[in-house]
Design a protein that fits this description.
single chain; alpha/beta; eight-stranded mixed sheet; 8 helices; 37% helix
């Protein structure tokens, strides 16, 4: 079977996407990743550990939401051209900004659609759990409703967190509360590649006997930080 993954970064590589793609290749799947090269400096086609990467060169400023929104439809059109040429069985869209392509593939091309939610995009507009201004609040609610719509339409929903011991809710509980069927949700944790982190000499790190908690990412609200 051929699986096409879609990401809106240049895949250099994206750790979560890369690990999932390599796992599929090891289990006999053919995997193609459609990536968005926003800076125009990466190879148009590349193969990494059996995973084929096809990059769409389309300039877009990182950090500029306005530029991203304007150019995202152009990325969709270029990605659709690739999808029309490839005889694929499954489309695996990563994050909210690629989900529209999964929606089209399911209902236009009759393909299986996997929606992989790395993060809740509506929280980008939030501050300390509250939307104090009208525009951020409106955008947050619109994105939240569209995301839940996609979650209901997809065949499988992959999320990175679920409750441990029932103390804090993860994304799995969030979607179940919002009426997404439990049996379509799969949790794939953002765990590190342990073997890579144990090579202290290669990483130029000193081994410590102290217990350490490391977090790589962004916390947007006080509530999130307290949970961490």
């Amino acid at each position: 079977m051929k699986v096409i993954m879609v990401v809106t970064n240049h895949f250099n590589p994206d750790p979560r996407v890369y690990k999932e793609a390599k796992s599929l290749v090891r289990n006999g799947y053919e995997v193609i990743i459609i990536a968005w090269d926003r800076v125009g400096k990466y190879p148009e086609k590349e193969v990494m550990d059996g995973v084929v990467i096809k990059r769409i060169k389309l300039k877009c400023k990182y950090g500029s939401m306005k530029d991203f929104i304007i150019r995202l439809p152009l990325f969709y059109l270029k990605a659709l051209k690739i999808l029309l040429k490839e005889k694929f069985n499954v489309i695996h869209t990563h994050d909210f900004d690629t989900a529209f392509l999964g929606f089209l593939s399911k209902y236009l091309f009759r393909k299986k659609w996997i929606y992989d939610v790395h993060d809740l995009y509506f929280t980008f507009f939030m501050k300390d759990g509250n939307n104090k201004k009208f525009i951020p609040s409106l955008l947050s609610n619109i994105v939240k409703k569209i995301d839940l719509f996609f979650a209901k339409c997809c065949g499988t929903l992959i999320i990175p967190t679920e409750s441990i011991g029932g103390k804090f809710e993860g994304l799995k509980e969030y979607y179940i509360i919002n009426r997404i069927k439990k049996d379509k949700i799969i949790t794939i944790w953002n765990v590190p590649d342990v073997e890579g982190f144990l090579n202290y000499k290669k990483l130029d790190l000193k081994k410590s006997d102290k217990f350490t908690i490391g977090f790589i990412g962004s916390k947007r609200t006080t509530k999130n930080f307290i949970s961490l």
